[in-house]
């Protein structure tokens, strides 16, 4: 399994990038959003990858963060969602948007992705809703892949050491993960806890962990 590619960009296509690693070119398929975020030809790049193995094909799919790669893996586990559909959903919403839509049961947002019908969107939400908390909790350890320097790329194999530190995760991601853990310890089901935290985070993006927990508990409180 090839889990990460670190090298120099040789070519940027409509749906893929060609990355040179010590003279070997790897074709890596990416969403439109990821392709637009990549540096130019000749520059260093690193992507986490997922290898799709079929009888007549081997394809690498690339993601800038482990969270996005994990969502791709989970989306592909849903009946009717192949690699192309998964990239369409991630390209339209981004990993944070996917986490929010699924945890809140917002299948209309998923349906907005190109080629995704209402039945498939509802299936995605229904099948993955209880898995959203675990992925959201990766916020503190799902940082971006960091490319090696060009000298390291030439001298070392694919898994070259990172030349620069990955950007620190947003405080809200860590706060959401801690809030989810706290609500789970209080006995709330993963799905309802994730939905409440996602809603609270959207309404109060500046909130810390305590603020998110308080806001989420208000949302979970019985009405009437």
Automatic annotation (TrEMBL):
<dbReference type="InterPro" id="IPR012340">
    <property type="entry name" value="NA-bd_OB-fold"/>
</dbReference>
<dbReference type="Pfam" id="PF01330">
    <property type="entry name" value="RuvA_N"/>
</dbReference>
<dbReference type="GO" id="GO:0006281">
    <property type="term" value="P:DNA repair"/>
</dbReference>
<dbReference type="GO" id="GO:0009378">
    <property type="term" value="F:four-way junction helicase activity"/>
</dbReference>
<dbReference type="InterPro" id="IPR013849">
    <property type="entry name" value="DNA_helicase_Holl-junc_RuvA_I"/>
</dbReference>
<keyword id="KW-0233">DNA recombination</keyword>
<dbReference type="GO" id="GO:0005524">
    <property type="term" value="F:ATP binding"/>
</dbReference>
<dbReference type="InterPro" id="IPR003583">
    <property type="entry name" value="Hlx-hairpin-Hlx_DNA-bd_motif"/>
</dbReference>
<keyword id="KW-0067">ATP-binding</keyword>
<feature type="domain" description="Helix-hairpin-helix DNA-binding motif class 1">
    <location>
        <begin position="73"/>
        <end position="92"/>
    </location>
</feature>
<dbReference type="GO" id="GO:0009379">
    <property type="term" value="C:Holliday junction helicase complex"/>
</dbReference>
<feature type="domain" description="Helix-hairpin-helix DNA-binding motif class 1">
    <location>
        <begin position="108"/>
        <end position="127"/>
    </location>
</feature>
<dbReference type="GO" id="GO:0005737">
    <property type="term" value="C:cytoplasm"/>
</dbReference>
<feature type="region of interest" description="Domain I">
    <location>
        <begin position="1"/>
        <end position="64"/>
    </location>
</feature>
<keyword id="KW-0378">Hydrolase</keyword>
<comment type="subunit">
    <text>Homotetramer. Forms an RuvA(8)-RuvB(12)-Holliday junction (HJ) complex. HJ DNA is sandwiched between 2 RuvA tetramers; dsDNA enters through RuvA and exits via RuvB. An RuvB hexamer assembles on each DNA strand where it exits the tetramer. Each RuvB hexamer is contacted by two RuvA subunits (via domain III) on 2 adjacent RuvB subunits; this complex drives branch migration. In the full resolvosome a probable DNA-RuvA(4)-RuvB(12)-RuvC(2) complex forms which resolves the HJ.</text>
</comment>
<dbReference type="GO" id="GO:0048476">
    <property type="term" value="C:Holliday junction resolvase complex"/>
</dbReference>
<dbReference type="Pfam" id="PF07499">
    <property type="entry name" value="RuvA_C"/>
</dbReference>
<keyword id="KW-0963">Cytoplasm</keyword>
<keyword id="KW-0227">DNA damage</keyword>
<feature type="region of interest" description="Domain III">
    <location>
        <begin position="171"/>
        <end position="224"/>
    </location>
</feature>
<dbReference type="InterPro" id="IPR011114">
    <property type="entry name" value="RuvA_C"/>
</dbReference>
<keyword id="KW-0547">Nucleotide-binding</keyword>
<dbReference type="InterPro" id="IPR000085">
    <property type="entry name" value="RuvA"/>
</dbReference>
<keyword id="KW-0347">Helicase</keyword>
<comment type="function">
    <text>The RuvA-RuvB-RuvC complex processes Holliday junction (HJ) DNA during genetic recombination and DNA repair, while the RuvA-RuvB complex plays an important role in the rescue of blocked DNA replication forks via replication fork reversal (RFR). RuvA specifically binds to HJ cruciform DNA, conferring on it an open structure. The RuvB hexamer acts as an ATP-dependent pump, pulling dsDNA into and through the RuvAB complex. HJ branch migration allows RuvC to scan DNA until it finds its consensus sequence, where it cleaves and resolves the cruciform DNA.</text>
</comment>
<keyword id="KW-0234">DNA repair</keyword>
<dbReference type="Pfam" id="PF14520">
    <property type="entry name" value="HHH_5"/>
</dbReference>
<dbReference type="InterPro" id="IPR010994">
    <property type="entry name" value="RuvA_2-like"/>
</dbReference>
<comment type="similarity">
    <text>Belongs to the RuvA family.</text>
</comment>
<protein>
    <recommendedName>
        <fullName>Holliday junction branch migration complex subunit RuvA</fullName>
    </recommendedName>
</protein>
<keyword id="KW-0238">DNA-binding</keyword>
<dbReference type="InterPro" id="IPR036267">
    <property type="entry name" value="RuvA_C_sf"/>
</dbReference>
<dbReference type="GO" id="GO:0000400">
    <property type="term" value="F:four-way junction DNA binding"/>
</dbReference>
<dbReference type="GO" id="GO:0006310">
    <property type="term" value="P:DNA recombination"/>
</dbReference>
């Amino acid at each position: 399994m090839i889990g990460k590619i670190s090298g120099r960009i040789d070519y940027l296509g409509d749906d893929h990038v060609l990355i040179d690693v010590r003279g070997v070119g790897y074709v890596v398929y990416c969403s439109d959003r990821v392709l637009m975020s990549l540096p130019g030809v000749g520059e260093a790049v690193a992507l986490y990858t997922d290898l799709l193995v079929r009888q007549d094909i081997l394809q690498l799919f690339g993601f800038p963060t482990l969270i996005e790669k994990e969502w791709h893996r989970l989306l592909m586990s849903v009946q009717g969602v192949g690699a192309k559909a998964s990239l369409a959903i991630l390209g339209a919403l981004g990993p944070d948007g996917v986490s929010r839509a699924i945890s809140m049961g917002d299948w209309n947002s998923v349906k907005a992705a190109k080629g995704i019908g209402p039945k498939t969107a509802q299936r995605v939400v229904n099948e993955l809703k209880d898995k959203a908390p675990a992925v959201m909790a990766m916020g503190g350890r799902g940082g971006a892949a960091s490319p090696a320097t060009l000298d390291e790329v030439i001298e070392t194999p694919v898994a070259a050491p990172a030349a620069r530190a990955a950007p620190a995760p947003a405080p809200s991601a860590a706060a959401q993960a801690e809030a989810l853990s706290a609500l789970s310890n209080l006995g709330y089901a993963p799905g309802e806890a994730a939905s409440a935290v996602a809603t609270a985070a959207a309404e109060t993006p500046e909130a810390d962990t305590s603020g998110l927990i308080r806001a989420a508990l208000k949302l979970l409180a019985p009405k009437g």
